[in-house]
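Researcher: Next entry in the queue.
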Amino acid sequence: MVNNTYSILNKIQSPKDLRKLSLEELPTLCDELRSDIIDELSVNPGHLASSLGVVELTVALHYVYNTPEDRIVWDVGHQAYGHKILTGRREQFCTNRKLHGIRPFPSPMESEYDTFTCGHASNSISAAVGMAVAAKLTKQKRNVVAVIGDGAMSGGLAFEGLNNVSSKPNDVLIVLNDNDMSIDRSVGGMKQYLLGLSTNETYNNVRYRVSKWLRSKGMLNDDRRQGIIRLNNALKSAISHQQNVFEGMNIRYFGPVDGHDVLNLVRILRQLKKMKGPKMLHLHTVKGKGYKPAEKAATIWHAPGKFDVDTGERIVSDTAGQPPKFQDVFGHTLLELAKRNKRIVGVTPAMPSGCSLNIMMKAMPDRAFDVGIAEGHAVTFSAGMAKDGLLPFCNIYSAFSQRAYDNIIHDAAILNLPVVLCLDRAGLVGEDGPTHHGAFDLAFLRPIPNITIASPMDEHELRHLMYTAQLPGMGTFVIRYPRGKGVCPDWQCPMKEIGVGTGRRLREGTDVAVLSIGPLGNSVAKAIDELEAEGAKVSVAHYDMRFVKPLDEQLLDEVATRFHRIVTIEDGCIMGGFGSAVTEWMADHDKKPTIRRLGLPDTFVEHGTVGELQQITGIDVENIKKTILSL
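Model: Structure for this entry, 631 residues:
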């Protein structure tokens, strides 16, 4: 929406327009940009608090650097709404995260100002170093800035990039947006280290007095600046009794600096732009800055949904009598199991509220662990605990589990350790798009020995599978389930063991057999009901297979013997997934039915509502009906 009261923001069609402004106009622009983000997200939900926290930084970067020729590499793309608005997408911003609208995160496929894909965290430094080296080798005069924040410094890839940045010829600037948050509160040693750098009272007092004296003598404006910077760093190490880890890696460190003082940011960035070699600028920011409700509860306001701007009241639909979210069933069930089984512990990489592990954290803080944005570590940490007698439930979003693939194989599966991998957000997740869809887990986990892979059709089945997974002798056990609500308001059923590798026949039929995995079984049931109500002359059997590995071979033999026409359906990539597993079994056992596989196509599925995307990918109720009738 274009608000005519925004006298300066309305002039900005691109960063070229921004760079025409006077310095004195920048604070007003920041206020208008922040208000514009708040107004838009109140009616078109998205990631609010993170983008509010970097408004001044966003303005300063585009003011100082010649974008898009100069590269700004965003880390954790939900920081970049202000960036999108300032780079020619303000009128389209009302379509953010909507089907065929602008993308939820920066993407070079959308804009030349978006230099890299950044749906997942911690990749900005590595990408920026690569771009800077490319610029040098191709003799292009180009500045490269990596903006890392929202807890992304806890990710292993960030440290790999830091380790490499000083060994290659480059002039990269790393901007560390330190707001002490990812989605939830940041955790771990890096958080404590940055806190120590930022809050040493003796250092900050001395630094202020010395800088004031030097400025009065004119010594901050000439060639003596570099020596003063080195003196400052030495002073910092002496007073804080610690070596700056970044300087120890030959990355020149500046900060901490107030990340909400846009004029000072412009001044500093202009100075750093001229310096050679890798540099780090450490900013202190407030997540949700400028909107009091978001400042007070940044986790809730990370992605708050619709809200009333004036009152700060979130507009939440009435959920009384409705089924709970799968994640909440997981959280409550895990606590229930942990009370019975003292070996059970919970692990998550920076998603305690997102996956509802916070329920166990509150009740059993010594048995639930948030390890930060570190999926590989989460798995290996879990494997270490499992090796010595504990039974970890490690909850990772399906798309993020891709970052832990080697750890799953090398550290859990080879030893067949009792690690329960709960893959939340499996399948299509909706508006967050291709970086967040849990499309590939079935295909990439199937080839791994010693792994059980299951997916519940509803909340009752999720509870039964969680109960089964913690029984003796289960080994590495994967349970995948979707984002959002299930179908069972009465989800708190007694838990029981499900035989590993056993499916169930839900409906008798004679013409076509539909084999489903996971919650899409509910869509199959609805499709069959509608076909019957419409008088379709087809008798359809329905099997909920429950397990992708091992498959229920007895059930498959029954299907192959009774039916010549089979449909498989899954909320995952069609190549190598559940349908492929069924087809392979049929071929290996000399069965020759006609099989139609429904699943996600061999493309990256874009963003939209789950319903819209299911229709596009052909796994909705109507397409299930058409496929059955076509056979």
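Model: The first strand starts at residue 71 and ends at 74.
Researcher: Noted, moving on.
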